[in-house]
Design a protein that fits this description.
The complex is a heterodimer. Chain A is of the alpha/beta class. In chain A, about 35% of the residues lie in helices and about 10% in strands. The longest helix of chain A has 25 residues. Chain A starts with a helix and ends in a 25-residue tail after the last helix. Chain B is mainly alpha-helical. Chain B is built from 13 helices and 4 strands. In chain B, the strands form 2 sheets. In chain B, strands 1-4 form a two-stranded antiparallel ribbon. A two-stranded antiparallel sheet of chain B has the order 2-3. Chain B is globular and about 55 Å long. The chains are: A alpha/beta, B mainly alpha. At the A-B interface, helix 1, strand 7, helix 8 and helix 9 of A face strand 1, helix 6, helix 7, helix 8 and helix 11 of B.
Chain lengths: ~475, ~240
């Protein structure tokens, strides 16, 4: 082993070339073939977390003149001009006309085309909102109601009266272990690292990034030359030594698992379908593009059910709401439209449902160019399987004396996150009898055995 | 109440992710009274945290719950200090681009005001089941955990120690003291064990290292590989 050969492989910050991958991949597929109760079709959920609390009252806005006047009155300097709103064709169930932020032409197109729908005034709840109970102090409210850490967690754990570390996608994956490929790649794939949403008792996320195959390889590992064999042998031998310390075991386990998974994943991604859809150069579009590529190799991964998670931060607009959203909301809208195009290219449009979550909405009132932590907010759901072009939930009648207002224009949600998640979980294939194991408090709002949909996102027959 | 909160907030800072309740109590007692009747002596508290027997003694017992995963920025800086990083102009300058790219951490790149990880993070599996936390694992995902060894590769074999911006001289490590003892594999391993893990290197790991390093004749390459293999060991990554 001489220095020159070592240096010729040095300074390589890229991905190791997997040459031992094929046999590992084949092993994974053969184990997969033996798994029981596998669904024959494919479905995936894509969760986009807008971290910080998106001011969604400027994303989805009343568009008819009298409702708009109330909105403009309460929002004062934050109000978007009515002439700039992009109208949504469908009215709400109550006949209200709504529009979206001027920078979200792509979202307008998605909704009006029936590819996406909006969810109005949704948030964490322990019981249906009762203004009298709030006034007299008997209402049961989610823990840490206006706290980022608690709320962002509760949208992922679906447990608003506790501080949990496992999310509902983790619980789904725990239950779908028999449908997981035996090659060690989790059905929960994250573009944003470790997250609560995809953590279960046995399940962890598999983290990839938006570059190349998404999975970083250890330099030299698996490479079939002197340097590579030495690297592979030494690392394998060192990771095989067992440890007593829990933390050391966890590190060794993760390192081992990352090495094994990368070999399989990078090999599979070499066959990713080249997409003609063009994605914008920003992290959200790049992440959705990578997700589309992963979906295109689902058969090689042996996956029939997957969840994907991506976080976009920076929404905590206590200041400069208008300027910030003008920059950031178009990115979200365009990324969703590009993702729609890619999924249609791959002929999986009906199989993938994308949905947004966020800590909370924000105060309707202004603090002077910004808004503060709120509660109920509005969200987007998109996919070929949904009832598209609709507004689910109830868009509030904005007024100075609204019974929903718990102070400073913070409107309590009228739709709990549980019914949103219930529809998504049932569509993905969670049996009705198991739904409350995935969403522990769902029975406060919905009885799975009644059949039918919780929020109505999907046609009842699809659940 | 206040002193227990303070002690609890400090817990994952220098020593271990899961200090025992007794450890926390001892520290909060020092906060209340530093031994001279004074309350709130932070210097005394820090001293107590670092010198407490739980911090200085090797853990025993079948299932060890002590220690903490060192975070990438601390690992990187420790490495530079340990091997006496130096440059002609006397500055150790780094943009930190590769540190960020490969390990997902950089002093200025916290994704939110909640920093890189939450103090309550408990990795699913054995650690969470035991009721423990290990916050630094929140950023040790599949890519980051491989990114660190790759960064080590670049530092040790690639003559890249920092990405120094224009106007600053390149930084290099001073490995000569290790080249000098590299012909004695055991002495090399023992020295690296001391400086990189505080003597915690697993004996089985040491034996394996001895076998692997003996295959390498060129002493400077042997040192570089030895540092790599010790630095990525669980005993170096999880510190007491």
């Amino acid at each position: 082993m001489d220095r020159r050969r070592f240096l010729s492989h040095s300074c390589s910050l890229g991905v190791a070339l997997p040459t031992l991958a094929s046999s590992t991949l084949a092993l994974g597929l053969s184990r997969q073939a033996a798994a029981q109760a596998m669904p024959q079709d494919y479905k995936a959920l894509v969760c986009i977390l807008l971290a910080g609390g998106n001011d969604s009252y400027n994303m989805l806005v009343p568009a008819d003149s009298s409702a708009y006047a109330a909105y403009a009155g309460i929002r004062s300097d934050l109000a978007l001009p009515i002439s700039e709103l992009l109208p949504l064709a469908p009215p709400t169930g109550a006949g209200q006309q709504l529009g979206v932020h001027p920078g979200m032409a792509s979202l307008q197109q998605l909704v009006n085309n029936g590819d996406a729908s909006m969810i109005a005034n949704i948030g964490t709840l322990l019981e249906p909102f009762d203004p009298a109970a709030v006034s007299n102090g008997t209402a049961r409210l989610p823990v840490g109601l206006f706290s980022h850490a608690d709320q962002i967690s509760q949208w992922q754990t679906a447990i608003p009266d506790g501080r949990g570390s496992q999310g509902w996608a983790g619980r789904i994956a725990d239950r779908m272990l028999s449908t997981n490929p035996g090659n060690g790649i989790s059905m929960n794939i994250s573009l944003s690292g470790t997250n609560t949403f995809q953590s279960g008792a046995q399940t962890r996320e598999y983290s990839i990034d938006s570059n190349g195959s998404g999975a970083t390889g250890l330099n030299g590992y698996g490479v079939d030359n002197g340097f590579g064999r030495f690297r592979t042998d030494s690392v394998d031998a060192l990771l095989a030594i067992s440890r007593e310390s829990l933390l050391k075991r966890e590190y060794a386990r993760r390192f081992r698992s990352a090495l094994d998974a990368q070999v399989v994943f990078a090999e599979a991604m070499q066959s990713a379908t080249p997409l003609t859809t063009e994605f914008s150069p920003n992290p959200l579009s790049a992440a959705l593009r990578q997700i589309a590529r992963v979906i295109s190799v689902r058969d090689l991964l042996g996956a029939t059910r997957q969840t994907f998670f991506v976080t976009i931060g920076g929404w905590d607009h206590h200041d400069e709401v208008l300027d910030n959203q003008a920059r950031m909301l178009p990115i979200v809208a365009d990324a969703l439209a590009q993702f729609r195009d890619a999924l249609q290219e791959l002929a999986v449009w009906d199989a993938v449902t994308t949905f947004t979550i966020s800590d909370f909405g924000r105060t309707l009132t202004s603090n002077g160019r910004g808004s503060d932590h709120g509660w109920g907010g509005h969200h987007i759901v998109m996919g070929g399987a949904i009832n598209g072009g609709e507004i689910f939930g109830h868009y509030p009648e904005i007024s100075m004396n609204s019974p929903l207002d718990v102070g400073r224009g913070i409107y309590a949600p009228t739709t709990p996150t549980d019914t949103y998640f219930a529809d998504l979980a049932l569509w993905l294939g969670v049996p009705r009898a198991d739904l409350d194991q995935v969403l522990p408090q769902v029975r406060r709002f919905y009885t799975p055995e009644d059949g039918g949909a919780a929020l109505g996102i999907f046609p009842a027959a699809a659940l | 109440m206040a002193r227990r909160c303070y002690a609890s907030a400090h817990r994952e800072s220098p020593v271990t992710s899961n200090p025992s309740p007794a450890y926390v109590s001892r520290i909060s007692a020092v906060f209340a009274d530093n031994g001279r009747g004074e309350r709130g002596d932070l210097a005394a508290v820090v001293r107590a945290i670092l010198l407490d027997p739980e911090a200085t003694q090797r853990p025993t017992g079948a299932q060890q719950t002590s220690g903490k995963l060192q975070e990438p920025v601390v690992r990187y800086v420790s490495l530079l200090r340990q091997f006496e990083a130096t440059s002609d102009d006397g500055f150790i300058a780094a943009l930190g681009f590769f540190l960020q790219e490969l390990t997902r951490q950089h002093p200025l790149s916290a994704p939110s005001v909640f920093n890189f990880y939450l103090p309550s993070h408990a990795p699913a599996g054995d650690i969470a089941a035991a009721g423990l936390v290990a916050p630094e694992f929140q950023i040790a995902d599949a890519n980051a955990i491989v990114g660190w060894p790759n960064l080590l590769d670049a530092i040790l074999f690639g003559d890249f120690v920092t990405d120094a911006p224009q106007g600053f001289d390149p930084v290099r490590l001073q490995l000569e003291p290790y080249f000098a003892i590299a012909s004695d594999v055991d002495e090399l391993i023992d020295r690296l064990d001391t400086v990189l893990t505080g003597g915690a290197l697993d004996s089985g790991y040491k034996a394996e290292l001895r076998t692997q390093l003996a295959l390498i004749d060129q002493l400077d390459v042997r040192v570089q590989i030895a540092i790599y293999l010790v630095a990525i060991s669980p005993d170096a990554m999880v510190v007491r």
